């Protein structure tokens, strides 16, 4: 989550985003250039190996969405999956980047044909490192058009 | 230089760095060459569905999303949908929180109508509400940005700033241990958005856009969140009325009947119930007005 900062005068300043959020917004910014609007909000959590986490969202038929998750951990191998209200996975586009020293970013794009409740699943498929190293902080944002 | 306002603060570097252009290039590849298909995890378990996180800032669609869907479905005449509204005079924090949501949605209507003066008016009213809630200090910059973007007819930046302003009010509520108020703001914004959207749907013979608004689960979820509020917040008639409205909307949207006449009847009821409760939220007394006559919005 973003951290509040207090200036030397004691006044509350704008919060500083986490590195995960910064990376997620940087990636989503590219979609913004393609006409997508980014929601002002994030989902930040910690992933452990083999334990996906899920976010409930409400999507509109006819709209296009990209969900972007990012982690400062290079090689975190974030996988995003979109599910409908019954829990079945939905056909989606996917994009992934994990360059050395630049963290991990993944995106899933979906164009629902029905309005309603959907779920976004996030999991780390990183198979290396100790259990502690397999804990991965991530931030998820989404954009629509 | 225009600042990207896609978060809790502005990020002057995000959109313009060389790194970003690199990401953009990768995205171009992603849009045209991404792999499609069903992922490895083909189904969620029931406990996973029950345990899914519901986040106010992402799980509840913003009025901007509702209106974006309406734009694709039926191209509303937004200029006819702009309304003037003033913040209610009240000391009830629950009503103030509800009013923030309604005014935010009004701001989105004004942005869609590209009515800069009305956006400024909404901005001023939101600042008044923030002052009443004791959360205005951190919002002064947002208010100034709204005015500046309205003066420059920067509609996309205005839409972003409206959502950021709403979220900043909510964040301050959380900091002040008033997290329950956040639920009220989200519910009211959605109800006002639904009032506007159902009015648009009812104004065309084919009810274009009705399917896009079919979200009974969200109405049920918001109603259950209001039901879980502390008793002190459910005193008076307003919060219970909002909850009842959400439950009624959920029931009407769950109606399996798809005949146009039935749909029109249901959406008219939804529209009128939303109108009634929005009117109550913006009324300086928390006494609910008399039930509105069952009228269908005029066609544009």
- Elements of chain A, N to C (H/E): EEHEEEEEEEEE
Helix percentage range of chain B: 55-70%
Categorize the overall geometry of chain B.
globular
Number of strands of chain A: 11
Q: For the terminal residues of chain A, how far apart are their CA atoms? A: 26 Å
Q: What's the CATH topology label of chain A? A: Jelly Rolls
Count of individual helical segments of chain B: 12
Question: What about the largest sheet of chain A?
Answer: 6 strands, antiparallel
Order of helical and strand elements of chain B = HEHHHHHHHHHHH
State the major sheet of chain B. none
State which percent range the strand residues of chain A make up. over 45%
How many separate domains of chain B?
Answer: 1
Helix and strand topology:
The complex is a heterodimer of chains A (145) and B (300).
Chain A: E1 3-6, E2 12-16, H1 19-32, E3 37-38, E4 43-47, E5 53-59, E6 65-71, E7 78-83, E8 92-97, E9 104-110, E10 116-124, E11 136-144
Chain B: H1 18-33, E1 35-37, H2 46-50, H3 56-59, H4 63-74, H5 93-112, H6 116-133, H7 140-151, H8 155-175, H9 179-202, H10 216-227, H11 238-254, H12 260-281
Plain-language structure description:
The complex is a heterodimer of chains A (145) and B (300). Chain A is mostly beta strands. Chain A has a single domain, classed as Jelly Rolls. Chain A has 1 helix and 11 strands. Chain A has one helix at residues 19-32, and strands spanning 3-6, 12-16, 37-38, 43-47, 53-59, 65-71, 78-83, 92-97, 104-110, 116-124, 136-144. In chain A, strands 3, 4, 6, 8, 9 and 11 form a 6-stranded antiparallel sheet that branches. In chain A, strands 5-10-7 form a 3-stranded antiparallel sheet, with no helix packed on it. Residues 1-15 of chain A have low confidence and may be disordered. Chain B has 300 residues and is mostly helical. Chain B has one domain. Helices cover 61% and strands 1% of the residues of chain B. Chain B has 12 helices and 1 strand, in the order αβααααααααααα. In chain B, helix 5 runs antiparallel to helix 8 (155-175). The radius of gyration of chain B is 20 Å and the shape is globular. The chains are: A mainly beta (145), B mainly alpha (300). Strand 8 (92-97) of chain A pairs antiparallel with strand 1 (35-37) of chain B.
């Amino acid at each position: 989550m973003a951290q509040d900062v207090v200036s030397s005068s004691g006044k509350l300043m704008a919060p500083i985003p986490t590195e995960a959020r910064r990376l997620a917004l940087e990636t989503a910014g590219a979609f913004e250039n393609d006409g997508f609007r980014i929601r002002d909000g994030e989902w930040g959590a910690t992933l452990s190996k083999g334990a996906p986490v899920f976010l409930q969202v409400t999507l509109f038929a006819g709209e296009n969405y990209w969900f972007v998750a990012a982690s400062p951990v290079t090689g975190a191998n974030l996988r995003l999956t979109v599910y409908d209200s019954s829990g079945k996975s939905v056909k989606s586009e996917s994009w992934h980047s994990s360059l050395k020293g630049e963290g991990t970013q993944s995106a899933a794009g979906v164009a629902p044909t029905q309005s309603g409740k959907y779920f976004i699943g996030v999991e780390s498929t990183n198979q290396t490192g100790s259990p502690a190293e397999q804990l991965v902080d991530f931030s998820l944002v989404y954009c629509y058009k | 230089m225009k600042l990207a306002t896609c978060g809790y603060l502005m990020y002057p570097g995000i959109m313009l760095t060389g790194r970003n252009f690199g990401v953009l290039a990768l995205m171009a590849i992603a849009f045209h060459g991404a792999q499609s298909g069903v992922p490895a995890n083909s189904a969620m378990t029931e406990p996973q569905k029950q345990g899914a996180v519901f986040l106010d800032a992402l799980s509840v669609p913003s009025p901007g999303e509702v209106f974006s869907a309406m734009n694709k479905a039926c191209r509303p005449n937004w200029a006819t949908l702009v309304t003037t509204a003033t913040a209610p005079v009240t000391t009830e924090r629950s009503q103030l929180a509800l009013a923030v949501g309604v005014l935010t949605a009004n701001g989105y209507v004004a942005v869609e109508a590209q009515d800069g003066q009305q956006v400024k008016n909404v901005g001023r009213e939101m600042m008044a509400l923030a002052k009443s809630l004791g959360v205005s200090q951190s919002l002064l910059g947002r208010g100034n940005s709204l005015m500046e973007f309205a003066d420059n007819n920067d509609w996309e930046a205005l839409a972003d700033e409206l959502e950021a302003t709403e979220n900043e009010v909510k964040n301050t509520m959380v900091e002040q241990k008033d997290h329950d108020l956040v639920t009220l703001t989200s519910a009211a914004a959605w109800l006002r958005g639904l009032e506007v959207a159902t009015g648009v749907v009812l104004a065309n013979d084919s009810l274009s856009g009705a399917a896009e608004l079919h979200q009974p689960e969200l109405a049920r979820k918001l109603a259950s969140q209001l039901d879980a509020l502390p008793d002190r917040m459910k005193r008076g008639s307003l919060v219970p009325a909002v909850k009842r409205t959400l439950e009624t909307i959920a029931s009407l949207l769950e109606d399996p009947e798809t005949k146009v006449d039935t749909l029109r009847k249901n959406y008219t009821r939804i529209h009128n119930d939303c109108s009634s409760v929005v009117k109550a939220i913006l009324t300086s007394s928390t006494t609910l007005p008399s039930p509105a006559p069952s009228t269908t919005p005029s066609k544009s």
